[in-house]
Design a protein that fits this description.
Layout (H helix, E strand, L loop, with lengths): L1 H11 L6 E3 L2 E3 L3 H5 E3 L3 H9 L5 E6 L4 H16 L5 E6 L4 H6 L7 E6 L2 E7 L4 H12 L2
Parallel strand pairs: 3-5, 4-5
Antiparallel strand pairs: 1-2, 4-6, 6-7
GO molecular function: protein-disulfide reductase activity
Pfam families: Thioredoxin
Protein name: Thioredoxin, mitochondrial
Length: about 140
Amino acid sequence: MAQRLALQRLLSLPARGSLACHGRAFGTSAGRRSTFNVQDGSDFQDRVVNSPKPVVVDFHAQWCGPCKILGPRLEKLVAKLEGKVLMAKVDIDDHTDLAIEYEVSAVPTVLAMKNGDVVDKFVGIKDEDQLEAFLKKLIGA
């Protein structure tokens, strides 16, 4: 279990700078740093509840078909906002306690959080126009 958590943390760390591989360097995009996987309750508290920026929280599951459609669509739109909003991904199977605390009864469930408070939410899949409107409302644009 400890090894699995350590590996998950390592894999979900945002890349910084560039990585060298066979003499070639690969840069990182700002969009990638806007999205992160929540590791545990403490990580959620630090990176979501205490965030100075608005955060979109995507409660999802690996087995959920609509989640596999919504997640990348939402990540793309968050990346377009260039750091104005962050996106936290919470796997409900790994973080049942957070799902219960935030009353997630179906996936995908997406929360909009500002200053530690849930200010908006939706359940199910949305098209890009609906997602853009949701994000604009969150950042006040």
